[in-house]
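Weekly modeling sync, notes
Attendees: S.R. (lead), two postdocs, one rotation student

Agenda item 3: backlog of single-chain predictions. S.R. asked that every request posted to the team notebook include the full sequence so nobody has to chase files. The rotation student volunteered to paste the first one in as an example of the format we agreed on. Action items at the bottom.

Example entry:
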Amino acid sequence: MADKKLRKKAFIVQNECVACGCCVKVCPKDAIHIERGIFADIDLEKCVGCSKCARECPACVIEIREVPA
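Predicted structure, as returned to the notebook:
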């Protein structure tokens, strides 16, 4: 059985996001945007899983997970 390749991606618990924009400012790939002024949303196609957003999030609502490549 072959090992499946995994890559890291960021995910936001949107109902707990405070839309402060800290994650938007530190994302090197411009993968995060504030939607309707309510929550942050991540474009998983652009996200490289660097975890800068998770480290900067004051609400601690961004998780870095491994997903299939």
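Discussion: group reviewed the output briefly. The two ends are 17 Å apart (CA to CA).
Action items: rotation student to repeat for the remaining queue; S.R. to check formatting next week.
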